[in-house]
Amino acid sequence: MSAIWSIVRRELAGYFATPVAYVFIVVFLLLTGIFTFYLGNFFQRGQADLLAFFNFHPWLYLFLVPAIAMRLWSEEHKAGTTELLLTLPLPAYAAVIGKFLAGWIFIGIALLLTLPIWLTVNWLGSPDNGVIVAGYLGSFLMAGGFLAIGACFSGMTSNQVIAFVLSVVTCFLFIVAGVPIVLDLFTGWAPEALVSTVASLSFVSHFQGIVKGVIDLRDLVYFASMIVLWLIANGIVVELRKG
Amino acid sequence: MNRKAYALSGLALLVVLLFAINILADGLFRGARIDLTERGLYTLSDGTRKVVAGLDEPIRLRLFYSEKLATTVPDIRVYGQRVRDLLEEIASVSDGKVQLEVIDPEPFSTAEDLAVASGVRGVPVSESGDQLYFGLVGRNSTDDEVVIPFFRSDREPFLEYELTRAIYRLGHPARQIVGILTALPMEYGPGGIQGAMQGRSQPYALLDEMRDFYDVRFLDPTALARVPDDVTLLLVAHPKKFSPTTLYAIDQFVLGGGRAMIFVDPFSETELGGGGGMMPSPDRGSDLGPFTEPWGISMVTDRFVADIGSATRVGYNNSVVDYVAWLGLGEQRLNQDIPLTAGLGTINMASPGALERRDDAPMEWTPLITSSPQATLMETERIAGRPEPDKLLIGYKPEGGARVLAALLRGEVPSAFPDGPPAPEPAAEDAGPKADEAPAEATPMPAPLARSNGPVNVLVVADSDMLADRFWVRRQNFMGEQLAIPTAANASFVINALEHLSGSDELIGLRSRGFSSRPFEVVEDIRREAEGRYREEENRLQLRLQETENRIAELESKVGGTGDILPKGQAEAIESFRQELLETRRALRQVQRDLRGDIDALETRIQVLNIGLMPLLVALIAIFIGLFRISRRHAGKGIRHASQ
């Protein structure tokens, strides 16, 4: 446990040592604001809730989370410090979990900094704060899913760009799996069970369930399984690279 | 190589696991969830679950919802999602008994034809006249149909109730029979039976309304031994001089789980005064009689609720005065938390009584209609003769706060006849022509019930005049046909009440959920405030307009009808008035612009703060930390230099 935490601390300190972290947070906050007010029609909707805010999170994360994730391992691979890290008296899984947690906490911090929008809706009207809490929780879980995917691809290659592109494509597939246009491609020939299974693997459908204010155990299982399994995959590919 | 093969098979295993876990969870954890919404919007109440679980046959629900068109109407979109979620939730707990089909009836599609044919109503939303549909058609296996033509978002608090009621009705399609026991001339009108025999029969218009939904059967209040088995609802109006056996029959009916609606009255203005010139009886009240004690509910006798806050205006001695004995009870006086009375409109009552509940009463009560807090109690003697509305106002003093005029009662109660049935009356054999049903002696009397089996549901109203036509309906001749035009919601109240009582116990227990729409109150306030200003401005304009017109008319009348050209001075005056008019209109437009302007300014401020503030802060912190580090590095170098 302490091994994991020492890695988390080292990683987090690494984030804030360069301006990259701040740039990331600023970009994230600007984009959420712009999406909420312009694309989400926050005022035109006239409703004291944060749907306009949360609805764009999957698409925001699609690019921002892989951007964070790409350097998790690729950087170490390139600098050749992966072996060093893995020869430390730490179990291999500690490095995997520690790096992931550091990234997740970092996203959590960025998410926390969006609190002004919460204050705003509370000032403008009387929103259902239970729903908003659920929304934040769902958003955070979804970010974890994206991050685990990104971490795995980052572990595969020493090229950050390749890691980024691969994770964006994969995340995109996991987003659109629930979109009717994609499902229509399957409905013609695939069995009903396969279609519904594909749909059920979509980030968006699980996220939207939570954003409504209902925390379904199935949604939790989905996000947990996504995170855990992609991290195991991450461990396997890192092990493999060690050769 | 071996390691690689291991790793690859490991990865493949993970993919399989991902599918397996989620498919398994989907089957295992259905319904395991926490509803974080404030009012439990996604948690079905037990009542709904029980109604759905009690279904014997499958029910098909078709939701016609123009989802694509609704994206342009935010109000409907929000509510549409809510309706859809709730229906899906109901379907998911029904074990397949409720089948939901969501149809988007796009313009000029066969789905649209189907919607129209099923009785779902379209609302034009776009300039091209595209119709938006948002209704529900439910059908059971015997093709009984229940239609909700359009989901109105102002009924949202009762959405679950209305959906559950629709499902309940489909599950129990048989028409119910309402038995009526009354001392009022409901069946033949004010002329009584004599009038009816002379061809002047004028039954209460309420009966027509009731017959749209129920079978109505009059029972004989003077000689009823027991309520027939097929009667499931009992309407008791003005139970005056009912025989003990009749009261016993009511008692046993209620204890056995029958639903009753009872109208009592401290002073009936509509009971038969004997018709043919007989003096009205001095005692014109009725009360809960033997039920007062066991139920713990009573009505104050010989005194009626006078209410200056709800008084209707009546013409009297060539002027219009408040008549405190006749009440028009609007939205604020009706319980808005339960579907029965919410959004009903105004209910008229005439000299109603005050209901009271004993503290230890076994009946819980939900007041449905209350007087205003300015009410007081008055002796019925004061209105017994020719009513003099102005006299009632002399020395009027509010006392005792708001009075309950109608209430839903629910609880487990003992019999009002603990010693068993009263002795039968000898008069039973000359049961009049009112007795429609077969004599009760034919079937053996069931064993008397001493207590209710489970909670009973009764609705008590402390006024019976509200049923009479003259308090809620205007009759009009239209092309030789009599049309009844309601002027108050009295009949809707009775129908709603019967509907409410006829549902299952679970359905009666369903309560309002509140609205899920949450507007920006601050913005609304600004708008209201600005609109107030706008209206003031508008009124001023109207006044000026009026004045100007008057002056112009005045000037013109001076000139007379000669058609001459106006004298120069007057023409100038008119011109200046016109100028004034234009000026005011301009000011008005400015106010309108300002109204939007205040809101726009607020929105811009919020937008800038939300988008810009945090990023700016973060950037500042980053710069600050950066500078701090640089300075520290310099300082470190300095130290190193010094040590060398």
UniProtKB/TrEMBL annotation, chain A:
Entry GO CC: plasma membrane
Transmembrane residue ranges: 12-38, 50-69, 90-119, 131-154, 161-183, 220-238
Out of the domains of life, which is the source?
Bacteria
Q: Which UniProt keywords apply?
A: Cell membrane, Membrane, Transmembrane, Transmembrane helix
Q: How does it sit in the membrane?
A: Multi-pass membrane protein
Give the subcellular location: Cell membrane
Q: What is this protein called?
A: ABC-2 family transporter protein
UniProtKB/TrEMBL annotation, chain B:
* TM stretches of this protein: 608-630
Coiled-coil residue windows: 520-594
Which stretches does UniProt call biased (Low complexity)? 440-449
Q: Where is this region: Disordered?
A: 415-449
Ranges where the DUF7088 domain occurs: 39-138
Q: Which domain of life is it from?
A: Bacteria
- Which positions make up the signal peptide? none
Per UniProt, the keywords (alphabetical) are:
Coiled coil, Membrane, Transmembrane, Transmembrane helix
> ABC-type uncharacterised transport system domain: which residues?
178-497
> Which named protein is this?
ABC-type uncharacterized transport system
